[in-house]
Design a protein that fits this description.
globular; mainly alpha; 90 residues
């Protein structure tokens, strides 16, 4: 799913703002000390887009863990997500 998100942001870099807004909102909802994953994503999103894209699509244990709390919710439409899920069911 994150590979599709990377492709979509490559075509429309303005979509990266969705992840920044999600992190900002989540940060406000947390205790004074944010969880590690939130701080990690904040750090990652300060990097140049090619580095962010690499983290999003790499197969490392850290990247897999980070994708479990991805700030990219809302980048893909419901229809795009449905097509991805269907592709994995077949």
């Amino acid at each position: 799913m994150h590979v599709r998100i990377v492709q979509k942001i490559d075509r429309d870099p303005g979509l990266l703002a969705i992840a920044h807004r999600n992190l900002a909102r989540w940060g406000k909802q947390r205790d004074p000390e944010p969880p590690t994953w939130l701080k990690e994503w904040q750090h990652i999103l300060r990097q140049p887009w090619p580095r962010v894209a690499a983290v999003m699509s790499e197969q490392s244990e850290t990247a897999c863990r980070l994708r479990q709390s991805s700030p990219f919710a809302g980048v893909l439409t419901t229809e795009e997500r449905r097509k991805i899920y269907e592709a994995f069911r077949t």
